[in-house]
Here is the input.
Amino acid sequence: MALLEVRDLDMVFGGVHAVQGLSFEVAPGTVYSVIGPNGAGKTTLFNMVSGIYKPTRGRIFFDGEDITGKPPHALARRGLSRTFQNLQVCMNLGAIENVMVGAHLKLSQRLLPAMLHAPWLAKADDACREEAARLMHFVGVGRYVHAHASSLPYGALKRMEIARALAAGPKLLLLDEPAAGLNNTETREIDTLIQKIAASGVTVVLVEHDMKLVMGISERILVLDYGKKLAEGSAAEVRSNPDVIVAYLGGA
Amino acid sequence: MWGDPRKGPLLLVAMIVAALPLVLPNTFYFDVAIRIYLNAVVAVGLNLLIGYAGQISLGHAAFLGIGAYASAILTSRYGWPPVAAMLVGALGVAVLAFVVARPILRLKGHYLAMATLGMGIIVYIVLVTESAWTGGPDGMAVPAFGAELVGERRWYWVAGACLLATIWIACNLVDSPIGRALQALHGSEIAAQVAGIDTARYKVKVFVISAVFASLTGSLLAHYVGFITPQLSGFFHSIELVTMVVVGGMASTYGAVVGAAILTVLPQLLSTFEGYELVVFGLILMLSMIFMPKGLVPNLAGWLRRS
Ligand SMILES: Nc1ncnc2c1ncn2[C@@H]1O[C@H](COP(=O)(O)OP(=O)(O)OP(=O)(O)O)[C@@H](O)[C@H]1O
Ligand SMILES: [Mg+2]
Here is the structure.
């Protein structure tokens, strides 16, 4: 059974039809990529899947359950996590606290123990901090463990967001352009990182413009154009699809 | 030790509270100290909402007023024990804050400010017009908290203990998963939601917590002063409370304490400017906002760290 299934999804903003009649399935344990030119509707798709936008039409199923229109925090509870193309970082917190925020659902949310600094809660929070530090090392920003989020360079913030998403222990991870704005070396590191994440059993849906990265890493690729599915298949299939070639070479 | 706000800084405040009676010359100064401590309790609570969670309230004096009037009415007219009246008042405020918070906190920025302002004005008008209960604009007398608890020197220790307890609780909260969630929704509401934080619920939670701090303080203040008027819940008082938080330092518990001290002492000092107190007061606020936009304590901490 598919971990994520999107059925006949539509999103309309005023006059803009950002996503139209889109259907696809993501099998568990795979890396599934979504590519397409600027404005194709990739981020809009992520925003619908993660509950930030309510689709105009269509259904989204996660782990067999209809999650259409459920709020983001309810989806996080079910094991869905993501990063952002335009960073969403809490600049009022330390880098490690940002990662710890990702583990929010693993910790007690009761008020009284928090107000009274209950020892068991403090211990759980310390363990969460250690795990966050481990994740920061895992994604390659270990040296910023004691830094404030506002002092991190752009590339480090992108990785910090991945660590935050992983801190939730997700089943499905949506990565929106993790390599954007990174140089070649950094992009290769991100490549390795995504492979490590996938190998750990997390299903990954990746939006990325870097074709080398996408072609090498993905089991399946979905090509979007003006909000519609242009093609779907393995890297080889997509690469040889005439529609895709036309769209990407900008021909008429 | 200075890294943990519950250790060094709290000990310092405790020592100041303990030592001050040795140097305060008369009851006038005790009175000022008590008012500083009680205002600081409200400011520390309000700072959780404004400084940490990033939500504005221009109506928090309303909660303080309700707490004060609940204590006054229940003890004087129904002969309730003061502690019971205080707790029931706080419970009532918690319920009210909970009911108004959900629709109000969906608003942002100016709209949130206007909505909380409106709520404060409604409470003020109710207190003025329901004169059969509240004594109207003239106010009403409040019985003593107990036969033991009379006079500035006794109240001093009650207010001091409340302040220390409040600082400890606020620091605990800030340093907990809940405090992190509040700061996260301030930093990026979307990131917080995607991380599983029900941001609407957390905003309501912190609104209720800060309202309860105000209500409990209102009850104590009513018994301490012995006489209350609707001004306690008025717009100017709400602004004063917000100013304590902003001048002292947003998202700094000790900043809120310092802000409360400054805003309590300043009007006393400025009384020499007869007639121009408010002008000088406003000027000081403007200058502090221009030169220390983050507030006094965070700015000083920043300078110390750099030098
Ligand atoms: N909140 C919104 N309100 C109105 N229009 C929107 C909104 N979000 C996206 N759009 C529009 O929907 C279309 C798809 O945008 P989207 O951001 O999903 O593209 P994308 O594929 O992620 O592009 P890029 O590769 O540049 O990130 C664009 O025309 C965009 O202007
Ligand atoms: Mg995008």
